[in-house]
Amino acid sequence: MGVSMAPTTAAAAANEFLRLSWEEPNVPAVTQMKLQKLLYYAHGWHLALKDAPLFDEDFEAWEWGPVVRDVYFETRSFGSERVSGYVTALVLDDSGDPLKARIDVPMVSNEITRKFIREVWDIHKKYSAIQLSNSTHAKGEPWTIIRDKYGSLDRKPTIPNELISEVFKKKIKSARAGSDSNNPAA
């Protein structure tokens, strides 16, 4: 496995969104669904603006939109309620020995990435999980393109970063020409 060039992990980015949400309890709750969509938008904007992924984990096309599998399994017990605990990750030491693994609460380690996630939070925090999910299902969105390509999402196909980047770059180009501020996807 190669060395990651991504500035963080999906779990660390999720934890940063959770930390921000706990500081602002008056915005719509960060449920597991909203957390997935916040990760998706952060990753998409990072791909488009920085030509690099925010994290290495893939998004899969699930029934309710793009999902990072590991983050889902860490947060599914919250159901449609506010996520009230940090996402954890299993960490192996340099030897790779599973007997020396530990549970960690990953956090974003650099200020530039924290600032980027804060900017995504500030734009998308006012939207509910359903609003964000609906926007990922709009015509021309990567999730919709993958759903239309496969027909069924039973196998939860990967949404390629190249497709996400292409669509988000189009959003930037469109925004420069004029924007729709009522659409969380814009």
Overview of the molecule:
The protein has helices spanning 10-23, 32-50, 69-75, 111-124, 129-136, 142-150, 161-177; strands at residues 59-62, 65-67, 89-91, 102-104, 158-159. By secondary structure, the protein is mainly alpha-helical. The chain has one domain (10-177). A hairpin with a 2-residue loop joins strand 1 (59-62) and strand 2. Helix 2 crosses helix 4 (111-124). The termini are far apart.
Short descriptors:
186 residues, two-stranded antiparallel ribbon, mainly alpha
Give the end-to-end Cα distance, rounded to a whole number of Å.
Answer: 35 Å
Tally of contiguous helical segments: 7
* Proportion of residues in extended strands: 5-15%
Count of beta strands? 5
Task: Tell me the Rg in angstroms.
Answer: 16 Å
Secondary structure elements and pairings:
Blueprint: H1 10-23, H2 32-50, E1 59-62, E2 65-67, H3 69-75, E3 89-91, E4 102-104, H4 111-124, H5 129-136, H6 142-150, E5 158-159, H7 161-177
Antiparallel strand pairs: 1-2, 1-5, 3-4
Helix pairs in contact: 1-2, 1-4, 2-4, 2-5, 2-7
How would you summarize what this structure contains?
The protein has 186 residues and is mainly alpha-helical. It has 7 helices and 5 strands.
